[in-house]
Amino acid sequence: MNRTPVLTGVIAALTLLLTAPGQAQIAVRGKKIYTSSGVVLTDGVVVLREGKIAEIGPANKVVIPAGFTIVDAAVVTPGLVDIRGTVGLTGIYNNFGHDQDQLETSAAMQPELRALDAYNPQEKLVAYVRGFGVTTVNTGHAPGRLISGQSVIVKTTGNTVEEALMVETGAVLADMSSEALQGSGSPGTRAKVMSLLRQQFLAAQRTIATSEAEAKKVTVKAPGKTTTTSKPAATTTKTNTTATNTPASKTGDGSPRDLRQEMFVRILKREIPLMITAHRAQDIASALRLAREFRFRLILDGASDAPLLLEEIKAAGVPIALHPTMQRAFGDTQNLSFETAAKLKKAGIPFAIETGFEAYVPKVRVLLFEAAVAAANGLSTEEALSAITIDAARILGIEKRVGSLEVGKDGDVALYDGDPFEYLTHCTGTIIQGRLVSSDRN
Amino acid sequence: MARNRGQAGSLSPSDEPFRVKFSLLLFSLFLLASGANAQTNGGTIAFVGGRILPVSRPPIEKGTLLVKDGKIIAVGDSSLTIPADATIIRSEGKTIMPGLVDTHSHIAGPAGGDSSAPIQPDIRVYDSLNMRESSVKKALAGGITTANIMPGSGHLMSGQTVYIKLRGGKTIEDYFIRDSAGNPSGGMKMANGTNSIGSPPFPGTRGKSVALIREQFIRAQEYRKKVRDARGDASKLPPRDLGMEALVEVLDGKRIVQHHTHRADDIMSVLRLQKEFGFKVVLHHVSEGWKVAEEIARAKVPCSIILIDAPGGKLEAVDLSFKTGAVLEKAGVPVAYHTDDGITDSRLFLRSAALGVRAGLSREAALQSVTLAGAKMLGLDSRLGSLETGKDADFIVLSGDPLSVYTHILQTYIEGRKVFDRDDARDALFAVGGVGAGEELRPYLCCADEEAAKR
Predict the structure, then answer these.
(1) Can you state the angle between helices B206-230 and B242-251, rounded to 10 degrees?
(2) What ipTM was estimated for this complex?
């Protein structure tokens, strides 16, 4: 067969790419390229140079530089962005004490727990989702406690979390569903949940007020120095790519640091969003109420009953990390629908589809599959792709780096041999920052 | 299955006329409610012009399906003669295939054996079912017409399963698939591996698990001998033992063992027991089936596969692969898929077969895997599982290729009667979800609670 040498060549090239330590220079040719930036290219090329997208356009206009490895695919999309999961904290074995670090149950509120310190980049399930095109995940502590901890935004590659890291704290994760009312140390009623959160926010407001008063004193004493930290709170959207971890509450009065309180301060200062799991309409309404009172950046998570409150959510300008389309419907989620994504789109509410968390199986959901079922139930192909690429990136505040195929963004690309959402199509490759990190036919 | 003989006669003769009248009344109301719907009542219905996938033979473009009195009376191409009095339903652009057979489901809230013992063959799961659960309606929306409802896998033997048709109705009796003697049909649920291991009286190891099962089957052999030796002499018969009676049915091949098993060595243990005692068995889940495909093929034992979106969840399922179906098919093993609902969603049953094809299963085997192959595994293939003359008129009408994500199930028919219609808002609610489609009942998740308890 005369195809064999070609195939061998392709395999050799792929192997070289997979094993090459540095960033290979790749040009991706796609019969169809969904850019998630409003353009769909037929016969297009994406040129990846030093980990970034250097050029993108029609094949007859883009010149592929000499020496670049060419990778072909029927369909090309941006690397997929999972707006909320637990992969890497949750492991394949479901073995408590070994690979189940997604939920600390010792207290109801522990926002100081960093996913950064719990994420295992070598977890098999991370490689698994990478094989289905996922390149960026906002992963962290699971629902199940009022505040279970933080999330971290990582790329699905790297031997260490430091290598994988994009954003140290993606969000602080709260749960206002029925599940958070169970377990030792948890509040027993919904009203108590709200009371506890209000008290925390009031305390954080006092800390900020004290801190600002101190800062003023310093300013008065030494007018030449610029020690004030008076950023306009409403517009701050930090997308730091390096680990800062600076104390947010420099009181200057010598009082000991309180890691827990610092997180509430940062939420109030809108430096990081509070992602609240709420499925029932009444819980969604409570989350909106709390956000109105304290003006933090709210992302609704789950939101099974969102179709019952479209106007309210729209008016509040709150985005949604929507439950997996195929999530099980029972208890708080009993009203969930395959068509919710389409309803949110029609209502103009920003949303992205998440993989969420499963206590049992599947230990991780495949983001592509969840978007596929939404695409089969009212979303267009482009809309469904946006919900797992650019829309997720925007809600997380990382859209300058990932989420679409545009010049200057990270070279994160997913390849397919057909319609990405069809059951019979395979994800044939995943590229992260210009490196082919998966070439399995999944 | 003689033990159930008394059951059908629970109605006293004096109740009968009332019941008949009441049924007629209900039927009339039903006809009124369904308007001009061509629900067979003697007349022939002809589905004409659609693509027909009989499963037992190649697809028929522009096919004709004739249905009368709940049975298929003919399947063919456009040359098939349509009786003059037939009601014609145009099916151009649509696909018609047999109703789906789910070989392993937990819809309607089954609760089999309790925690008192690891082996409870006397338990009949149909005594526990709530047919009003929305899980039943969702299964219909998924095109499932026949299901094997199983008790859980937390026992070595958790009880008798029940094979049902999702006809609708008020009680489980309306759903039974009765055998020629009029008894409800079903299998025997068994399990091995970690799920059925526990603290006493449950076995603590795999060796103990098999020992307990062997002991039980040897007792059943002895019981059977006593019954046979009595030759109908009541004075010589052993005292009736409901568990033993069910196990004798298993030994006699009248009740198929439906066996939960994941790990390769556990699969081999089932095959060893099967060889020793000669019962009929279907291997369920078979996460590591691909590792012992040749051995399974040699034992001539079929497999019903669970397809989960990701491997893991427990140590036994870490090597779960989409490729299992393809590997087993290649080895010559009959392959079915199952939902294990609520582990996977009944509405997405076809998706399991499609993902099997994604990983190398043939299209033909995939279509059989959710229909005829499943029917064979339940011993019901003479009645259902394919579109053939004389079989029950159980079929689904689809908007396109059954293996496409974009295809919707438009109608589901059981015994010639339409039991699901996506055009009806009440049915569509269960197909897509929304307020009213759910239920407060927790779905069956065999091990989630145990895992949670360990936290």
Answers:
(1) 90
(2) 0.89
